[in-house]
Write a structure and sequence with these properties.
Layout lengths: L6 H28 L1 E7 L2 E6 L14 H24 E2 L2 E2 L4 E3 H5 L13 E3 H10 L3 E5 L11 E5 L18 H31 L7 E9 L2 E6 L10 H9 L3 E6 L4 E4 L5 H9 L10 E6 L8 H13 L4 H25 L27 H28 L6 H30 L7 H19 L2 H21 L3 H35 L14 H58 L5 H32 L6 E5 H18 L3 E5 L6 E5 H18 L5 E11 L2 E11 L8 H4 L18 H11 L3 E7 L2 E9 L2
Parallel strand pairs: 15-17
Antiparallel strand pairs: 1-2, 3-4, 5-6, 7-8, 9-10, 9-13, 11-12, 11-13, 14-16, 17-18, 18-20, 19-20
Helix pairs in contact: 1-9, 1-11, 2-5, 2-8, 4-5, 10-11, 13-14, 14-15, 15-16, 16-20, 17-18, 18-20
């Protein structure tokens, strides 16, 4: 008997396990925080980088993921900054008076666009317009220089005029054209204002001496080739190869040719990545455009790269991650051990030291364990959903508040306690039900299914053939029709239903096969065979019960027949035994009388008659006893190896004088070698003796008796056949089977001495010694063949 634990101890274990799982989550979060860098790029831009503890001492900062991400991000920003500078500057200086065609600018990213009216504004006016926003006013149709669909139209308030000192309405020839110009104006002002803010930020971030990243971008500005760079040593006189040489001297460099999409670099950035970046600004990078970017590892400027290096070096000198990993696994395995321990002990009653425990295990269920399992499953699902929500919220909160003090850790502790105090009791509840084997106790669904099943089977078992066949078939067709109409879900359900019906038909046919099999088994003399009908219904149940009843009837009849046969054999044995005692006295007294010198012939004749009849009666009783023993199976056989050839020769010698009395001549044919068989010698001699006595009594006098012994192969085994043939003195008017019946004689007048049991005993003894007895009658020819296996 396994012993349980106290309620107090159980609660303490759950509390300790909750603290252990909380410790596991806390250490994991701490390891993640310790391996994560939060890098501030400036301008409110921050990025996180995870540095596995096993890589901290093996990778230099310039080869780290942190550096490559910063470098990739900076390359993208420099390309964008160059495009924006090309929009904002003239000869390297911000040009407020620069003319911007709003239609061309708004459609700059489109490969093909419809020709629009050209309207140019000052760059500074468009940026300010984007900052202040576009306002509208309604004007009547007579003010508009083109036809409109209504009596009034909403137009843009002309906060700024075009370079030609006109408002936007003056450039349109139709309402559609005006609406397109308005859309172009909205797009251009919004884009330029956003680009201007980036222009200011990028100029400060990537200005001369403000970053460790060096760049030079060559592109066309108003059909003039210009270069944007933060390297003062580069001028318009430098060739492409000279500039490339300057950048190749840096620890990391990029030289990209947008014309040919070729890249030369020693960084991890790829040509595909550069192509992806430049493709966003195809309108700006035309022929002879070039991009050079390099990194100066002297770290003379304080920027994101230098701050990243400081973070990286501080993290590489941080906590040893191996110790944290070991601590995490220890806490987790301790939690699992307590969890498994609780599951093993759960449901088992607690017994004090001196309290006697029962030998058999018993499980104590709680009140909640008797609630229908469907409600428990719904409750468990609700707990899982709650735990997922709590877990996801706490993980999201901890991730978003990384490096923000103790608050994320407090959230993790509370979430761990909530998770364990809800999840573990639910698991323990199902553990108790599994141990008690009552998982489906009080199941509502099973109750409904079982009720429907019982009622259906009851109607099926007790109903008419029409009810059991056509009504289910019609219902099946209707259900399939409805489900097919409700395709595709209904079609899937119909397929499942058809499969279930197929399984039912298979089971029904399988039951029929079992019935046929049982009939064959019973027909092969296994009358004790009974079918299991507990899972059968309808016609199969009736057939199976009928087969079982037939088997029972046959078994009872056989038992009665065997009982009668035994009673008959016992009666014969007892009567024969009772007759034997006085008969022996009679024979002895007759023998004594024969020894007296009786001169009276009449009295002497009476004595001879008494002697003959008493001897015949003795033979009859002996045959009856022996036949009774053989039929009841009480005969004892001692098998031994004998030479059948020698035995036949010996028996012929013993009966030669007796045969001579009736003028019978015996002719014996046998192989000139010994043939051995395994039989009981006494029984075998009794068989031969019975055959010879039969010949002596019923053979035609003055004829020959043929005895043949030969070996033959039967069914792959060597066997020996003993054949005995003679001519009957009396006409044989019965069949061989009738002649083998007990108390049957060839002489129907029964004038010959004999019991009529000789052939029956001979046949029974032969078969008892695993031999074969065959009797053939052909006219007056009497032929017996005995077959035995040789050894």
């Amino acid at each position: 008997m396994k012993k349980g634990i106290k309620k107090t101890k159980r609660f303490i274990i759950i509390l300790i396990s909750s603290l252990l799982i909380a410790t596991t989550f806390l250490l994991t979060y701490f390891l993640y925080e310790d391996s994560t860098m939060l890098v501030d790029y400036g301008s409110g831009s921050k990025s996180r980088f995870f540095i596995p503890f096993y890589e901290r001492d093996n990778i230099n900062y310039e080869d780290s993921e942190l550096f490559n991400d910063l470098f990739d991000n900076s390359v993208e920003e420099i390309v964008r900054m160059s495009v924006i500078k090309n929009q904002m500057e003239t000869d390297g200086v911000y040009d407020a008076e620069k003319a911007v065609d709003i239609s061309s600018y708004a459609n700059r990213n489109k490969t093909v666009h419809r020709k629009s009216v050209s309207v140019e504004y000052r760059l500074d006016d468009l940026i300010n317009w984007g900052n202040k926003g576009i306002e509208y006013e309604n004007v009547s149709a007579d003010v508009v220089p083109f036809p409109i669909s209504g009596e009034a139209i909403s137009i843009v308030v002309a906060r700024y005029k075009s370079i030609e000192d006109k408002d936007l309405l003056s450039y349109a020839n139709s309402e559609e054209e005006y609406n397109e110009l308005v859309n172009n104006l909205i797009t251009t002002t919004a884009a330029l204002f956003s680009n201007y803010k980036e222009y200011v930020a990028f100029s400060d971030k990537y200005g001369v001496g403000k970053t460790n990243l060096l760049y030079c971008v060559q592109m066309y500005n108003d059909d003039k080739l210009v270069r944007f760079t933060n390297m003062e040593v580069i001028s318009s006189k430098h060739t492409v190869d000279e500039i490339t040489g300057l950048f190749k001297n840096q620890v990391k460099y990029i030289y990209f040719n947008p014309d040919k999409m070729t890249l030369a670099t020693n960084s991890q950035i790829s040509a595909l990545r550069m192509q992806e970046i430049v493709n966003s600004y195809n309108y700006a990078f035309s022929d002879n455009s070039r991009i050079w970017i390099g990194f100066d590892n002297m770290y003379s400027a304080s920027d994101g790269f230098s701050k990243g290096k400081q973070y990286y070096e501080s993290k590489t000198a941080g906590t040893d991650g191996v110790e944290l990993i070991v601590a995490i696994w220890i806490a987790f395995f301790a939690y699992l051990s307590l969890f498994v321990y609780l599951i093993i002990k759960e449901g088992r009653p607690y017994y004090k030291k001196n309290e006697e425990m029962p030998e058999e295990d018993s499980i104590r269920l709680r009140k909640i364990d008797h609630v229908p399992v469907e409600f428990l499953v719904v409750l468990a699902f609700g707990i899982i959903v709650l735990d997922l929500l709590v877990g996801s919220y706490s993980a999201s909160y901890a991730y978003s508040h990384l490096f923000e003090g103790i608050m994320p850790y407090a959230v993790i502790i509370v979430a761990s306690l909530v998770l364990n105090f809800t999840f573990m009791p639910a698991v323990l509840c199902f553990a108790r039900k599994l141990k008690a084997k009552n998982m489906l106790e009080n199941s509502c669904i099973l109750w409904i299914i079982e009720s429907v099943r019982k009622e259906t089977l009851n109607a099926y078992d007790n109903g008419h053939a029409i009810i059991r066949t056509w009504i289910p078939y019609i219902i099946f067709l209707l259900i399939n029709l409805i489900l097919v109409i409700l395709a595709p879900i209904g079609l899937i359900i119909a397929i499942i239903l058809d499969i279930l019906v197929g399984v039912y038909l298979y089971k029904n046919n399988k039951d029929r096969q079992e019935i046929v099999k049982s009939i064959n088994i019973i027909s092969q003399s296994d009358i004790k065979h009974q079918m299991d009908t507990s899972k059968m219904h309808g016609d199969n149940l009736e057939l199976a019960n009928a087969v079982n009843n037939i088997g029972n009837g046959i078994r009872k009849a056989v038992e009665k027949s065997m009982k009668d046969e035994k009673m008959k054999a016992d009666l014969i044995t007892n009567v024969s035994h009772d007759i034997k005692t006085p008969l022996t006295s009679i024979i002895n007294y007759v023998d004594l009388l024969k020894r007296e010198n009786i001169q009276d012939e009449k009295i002497s004749g009476y004595i001879d008659v008494l002697d003959q009849k008493s001897q015949r009666l003795k033979l009859l009783t002996d045959d009856l006893v022996e036949a009774s023993k053989i039929s009841s199976g009480n005969i004892v056989l001692n098998f031994e190896k004998i030479n059948i050839v020698e035995l036949i020769n010996q028996s012929i010698g013993e009966y030669e004088d007796k045969f001579a009395e009736h003028g019978l001549k015996c002719r014996f044919e046998a192989p000139q070698k010994p043939i051995y068989i395994s039989v009981d010698s006494k029984s075998m001699f009794r068989i031969i003796e019975n055959l010879y006595n039969n010949i002596y009594k019923y053979a035609l006098q003055g004829t020959r008796v043929y005895i043949d012994l030969e070996e033959c192969g039967v069914e792959g085994a060597t066997r020996v056949q003993l054949s005995v043939k003679n001519i009957s003195e009396s006409q044989l008017t019965m069949s061989a089977d009738e002649l083998l019946e007990r108390f049957k004689q060839g002489d129907e007048s029964r004038t010959m001495d004999g019991s009529g049991l000789g052939l029956s005993i001979t046949k029974s003894l032969t078969e008892a010694m695993n031999g074969q007895f065959d009797l053939f009658l052909d006219g007056d020819l009497f032929k017996v063949i005995l077959t035995f296996n040789t050894i």
